[in-house]
Amino acid sequence: MGTALLVTAGLVATVAAGCGDGAGAVPKITTTARAGVAPVPPQQGAYFGAWVPPEGTGRPTASGSPSASDAPSGSPSGSPSGRDAGKPGMAPVAGFERQLGRQLDIVQSYRGWKSDFPGGLEESVADGNRYLLLTWGGADTREIVQGRHDALIARRARALKALGKPVFLRWSRDMDKPSAEKRVHSPADFTAAWKHLREIFTREKVDNVAWVWCPTARGFGGVNAGAYYPGDDQVDWICADAQPGGDYDYRDLSEALKLFMEWARKHKKPIMIAEFGVPKSYGTRRAEWLREAAKTLQDPQVKAVVYFNSDEQAESARDKRRAYSVSGDKRAVSALRELATTPYFNPRNLPVTSGG
């Protein structure tokens, strides 16, 4: 299975614009990633993935990232990938896949800056026919440039190299948020730290990692999120986190992404939407939102989408505006299943079942 994934990834190193259901053409897409070793974009369509929290976790960690502890194992019957359900951390993923009626292309995990990885979940994902999207927390950018974390970075680089499978690495996401300013300091400090990390990974000869740069979509409206961009030669995928936000009664994904997409058009890079979700506060309109989102995301430059199937950002049990899990909402599950099984979001032509 893993070999098949590598073969698929190795088909192209540069990808011409796809033909996403009538969407307009975009410039030729390029990546610095090594085809056949690191993840590269599909020739047509977009990978579909998700963040599925481990069982027994709920609140975000102090760093703002979800807990990455391993979930109890178990094998939900009827899962399209039931043989993987018993692997460490994979039971919730297999259960979510059963609801969707297909296997995920991408499984996301979150790790803090000082966390050891890969852990059980990451190793389980790499052991199968899925891409790992590892979201790694940030640290003080000036300390990184000064070399104070070089030993830690080198250890993590060697660990990912030893994993021996393609990995999306999303380091210090949402760096444009005001809450991150104390450790990020400035765009110049961030880009210098990014380049320092890449230098160490290059020194360690890590070539199975694709670098994903990911601010918030909202940051292209207020603060200048684009100022944090390290450059086309430093980034493999450009990305945005595009949750609607708790201050909107209703907001289409197209509205949330508009300014980011306008910025992204200027760069010949594949786009990943790494955290999108429909709030429970939208009630019966959740299915409508997801169907409209499916249209928005069928864009020839969008090459990966990752659903945030979690309520852990909610400030309380009553906070429905920051709760995104579709589990238990039959209409929302059905609409997300429609999105996930649309041929555009199944570029590897994985088997589709009835789901549920």
TrEMBL record:
Source organism superkingdom: Bacteria
Key words of the record: Glycosidase, Hydrolase
Region span, Disordered: 47-92
Domain GH26: 43-336
UniProt keyword annotation of Ribosomal protein present: no
Keyword Hydrolase appears in the UniProt entry: yes
Bias-annotated ranges (Low complexity): 62-83
Family from the record: Belongs to the glycosyl hydrolase 26 family.
Listed name of the protein: GH26 domain-containing protein
